[in-house]
Amino acid sequence: AANDTYFSNYIAQPVEPLVWLAVYVGITALIVFFGVQKGVEKASKVMMPVLAVLSVGVAVYSVTRPGALEGVAYYLTPDFSRFSPMTVLAAMGQMFYSMSLAMGIMVTYGSYMKKEDDLEKSVKQIELFDTGMAFVAGLMIIPAVFAFSGGDEAALNKGAGLMFVTLPKVFADAGTLGLVFGGLFFLLVLFAALTSSVSLMETVVSIFQDKFHWSRKKTCGLVLVGCLILAAPSSLGYGTLSWIAPLGLSILDFFDFITNSVMMPIVAFCTCVFVGYVVGTKVVVNEVKRSSPFKREKLFVVVVKYVAPVCIVLILVSSILDTLGVIKI
């Protein structure tokens, strides 16, 4: 049976998390080793449709549980009494990270696109699928938590606790069918994580290949070793190395804070300044117009030069203050 301490006890173990870390990073490196078309593209063509099907299946199961409709109502009914500027900042921050903005992924994958690929159409597809999957994810999680917590909103805590403590109890309490859907759900989570880690590693591998002219095999091997060395402290941060707590955070949470809440917004801000005021927006506009009429050109220019930089600074400041406990998002 699932309990509140199983996950925390597991991540505090000295060896097993490292073993699974090595297996996971190894699978990621293997996919990247086969290259963009044979590795990344083939894996994504399998994992992404399976991910979508599993998501819908688990969502249907979730909303049909007794008591789940209360969660559906909670999820879909606006409560303007809770609306505040912090709500907007939290939404912008979520969108920022969900779409991998200001990450090397976009630059690397963009470099593999053909000149005739319709960029504006691709952007629309990303908007649609990102929003759709986020909506389905909400239908998977919130109604299920409501159904098995007796409508307790406090069970909707953010972070790893929701996924690895609350949801396992949800599935365990649902009998055999719940265990089946629980297994499917965490398989879905694995696929979602793999598609992200493959993208990230592909970016690093391509940079080293371009810089040092190494073979993909050699580069993947070196990046694999580097990833394992860098990831090991985070893997041990809840157990053996739990005494290391910069800013009062675990090692994993600290690096998550530094990369997601500090470095990414700074890079995004610099990118907006670079595109908007250094090289000029015409560079991007002309590239998009190679394959489409770029109907959003005027909106793009205004957003990149004036709107996005302000929003990014607000996201940066609010994320830092939230982590430091000054405000609560």
Summarize the structure.
Helix content is 76%, strand content 0%. The chain has 13 helices and no strands.
Fold and architecture overview:
There is one protein chain. 76% of the residues lie in helices and 0% in strands. The chain has 329 residues and is mostly helical. Helix 3 (35-63) packs parallel to helix 7 (119-149) and helix 7 (119-149) crosses helix 8 (160-172). The protein is globular.
Question: What fraction, in percent, of the residue positions are helical?
Answer: over 70%
Order of helices and strands: HHHHHHHHHHHHH
Q: What is the number of beta strands?
A: 0
The poorly predicted ranges are: none
Largest sheet: none
Round the Cα radius of gyration to an integer and report it. 21 Å
Structural class: mainly alpha
List the helices and strands and how they pair.
Blueprint: H1 6-11, H2 16-33, H3 35-63, H4 68-76, H5 85-98, H6 104-112, H7 119-149, H8 160-172, H9 175-212, H10 216-235, H11 251-278, H12 282-288, H13 297-323
Helix pairs in contact: 2-3, 2-9, 2-10, 3-7, 3-9, 4-7, 5-13, 6-9, 7-8, 8-9, 9-10, 11-13
Entry keywords:
single chain; 329 residues; mainly alpha; 13 helices
